[in-house]
Amino acid sequence: MIQPSVRSELVSYPIRDIVQEAKRLEKQGTKMIYLNIGDPAPFGFRPPQHILDAAAEALKQNYSGYAPSEGDPELRSTIANYEKVAPEDVFVTSGLSEGIDFLFQALVDPGRNILLPVPTYPLYLTKQRLSYGTIEFYDCDSNFEPDVDNLRKSITKYTRALLVINPNNPTGSVYSRKTLEAIVDIAGEHNLPIISDDAYEKLVFDGEYTNLRTIHKDVPLVSGNSISKNYIYPGARVGYIAFHGEQWSVMKDALQRLCNQRLSVNWEMQRAYMAALKGPHDHIAKFNADLKKRRDILAKRVKEIPGLSLAAPKGAFYAFIKVDGPWKNDAEFVRGLLKEGVVTVPGSGFLPTDKGKYFRVVFLGSPEQINEAMDRVARYMKNSK
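Structure tokens predicted for Aromatic-amino-acid aminotransferase 2:
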């Protein structure tokens, strides 16, 4: 038997791990409602037509070779204009996920860490482990807004950077300007850079949104983004990281080396992303209206079910629902819910188990799907007492 490496055992991705059990039950006849993964396509959402047209035109124009490792020059310039940086500050990646991978490879040595919010997106946990870094968190309050006092206390001499995910995955929270300004001040006090995950920045349907690029002062900032969620095209697998500030020159050399070793990002999709950034952006208002409608339905249903509670999301398309009941942990709750035909993700995939029992729901489905899913959740809760 050929054994896998120790490093491979460090990899976990609960958002997709749950699917294997769901598929097994589906083969046995259970009709499943998949609310586990943030992919708009299965729910009938499509990228704007001008983006698809740009991808098709790139194929016609034979953008079939290797692109420059750091990215298509025109796309880098377009991103630079958007981020208010120079083109050489931009590195195009195969989705933001690859950009996250590169940042951890470049920043985290064994025993060091990037300080993560709790709850956090699971990819950050895996990349921290693969870098042999330590898993360190800062807390959020009951509305999933960062607790800035706890953030300050959580910084140690081993901290290399602070991570901010806004709007947040898995909670859908949107951070206040006051909180973000406090994070900038704390980073400045400790001479630490900030990593800003902006993957959902256009998907805000309640309240005001502030991006760190507009308020980071002289604190070094790296912004990460992609075509996946804001432009409803996750299968394109193209994103970027953009460095803000003068302190990143050596880090940019490291990023160039990391980009070189994987050759390039799909060139046709880079042309599509350029079209996405240039616009028009008419789809965003409608998409946000659709998301708000679905959020409202979900929040109402959660409120009606004893044992469930929710800090209503203001952005993205996730709800992080707290559950009280007889289950020993949220993984047990989610496994039981599978038998009712509802696929969600246990909260323990996003946060330490001592923080309570949660499960994450994607509310991209139709109102009918959301209501049917919550009917099944209510039945499961009632029958489990």
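Residues 133 and 224 are 21 Å apart (CA to CA).
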